[in-house]
Write a structure and sequence with these properties.
This protein has 18 helices and no strands. By secondary structure, it is mainly α. α1 packs parallel to α5, α1 runs parallel beside α12 and α2 packs parallel to α4. The mean pLDDT is about 85.
Length: about 400
Amino acid sequence: MFSAGLSWLFDAMDVGLLSFIVAALSVDWDLGARQIGLLTAINSIGMAAGAAVAGAMADRFGRRSILLWTLLIFSAASGLSAFATSFVILCIFRFITGFGLGGELPVASTLVSESVPAKERGRAIVLLESFWAGGWILAALVAYFVIPVYGWRIALLIGALPALYALYLRRAIQDSPRFINQQHLRLPFKDRLRSLWSIKYRKSTIVLWILWFTVVFSYYGMFLWLPTVMVMKGFGLVKSFQYVLIITLAQLPGYFTAAYLIEKFGRKFVLVTYLLLTAVSAIWFSSAVTAGMLVAAGISLSFFNLGAWGAMYAYTPELYPTSIRATGVGFAASFGRIGGVIGPYLVGMLVASGTAIANVFMIFFIAIVIGALAVLFMGKETKGTDPDRI
């Protein structure tokens, strides 16, 4: 869990850095709101492609090898982004970076989920997801101390460091016992895809795709724009970075409380509760006017939204057996990343057209509520269950 968690941390650091870099680029390259939205959307398009491809390949070639390759891809592309000489070239590199990022996450969560006992599985995955907060905190620190002094290119070069970690990970991590023991049951890709939509798993697949779409749509729409929204509300670039760092710290207790509650009350309870409180926090944040209220609302938004993310990653692999698990997780994440494409780009379009931030965040409120209701009424509880025995 720790080995995969560090790769997760580097993944989060790169995504977090992007949110700060676009705020700096808007000043350095004089980018408009639509261009910022396009850049973040292209990153998510890469993540959507990566999640689907890596998930499918992990069921064929193993979790470990695909995890290493995705880590190397996003590290190399992130470093090369630092040398971009135009907006178009930067977009190309960010697509490749997103491909690696999006591929790594579902594979890592599948690997860890298969490597721990059922009674600890949910807690382990939420704790794995808590490394995401560590990555965002690192991104916020880099943004606060590096970008204002050395510029955004140095920040992107720092994003290439995970390539060195892959050398260690190659020896430190192995495929899960479940996958190794069931290698003889490997199915062709068409059969795996058909299984996801068979009568047995169709309802689970629909719930997961709705859940992933609404959560990713709202998260990337809100959080990639967080520093920029701070600037729009009248705070300077450095001050907005400082506030976002404080808000980011709230992710850790969000994860830790979700890790405790998920094994005590179940996956559905945590998902529905944390999502509904995320929706309320989104409205609170959008209407905040003072610095104190803005930070408090941001802390609440960060706490509940990332706790829900942890529960979602714990819930998803538990709905499929080992033979199709990575494919199921990868395609759910891939469909969700479509929301990650639409969310930031939609914000850019609406802001450019003069739409009030409160109205933009109302869209995210509605989306999150839809995701919570889908889990509440259509989702099944997976606490303590073994998908391979059902």
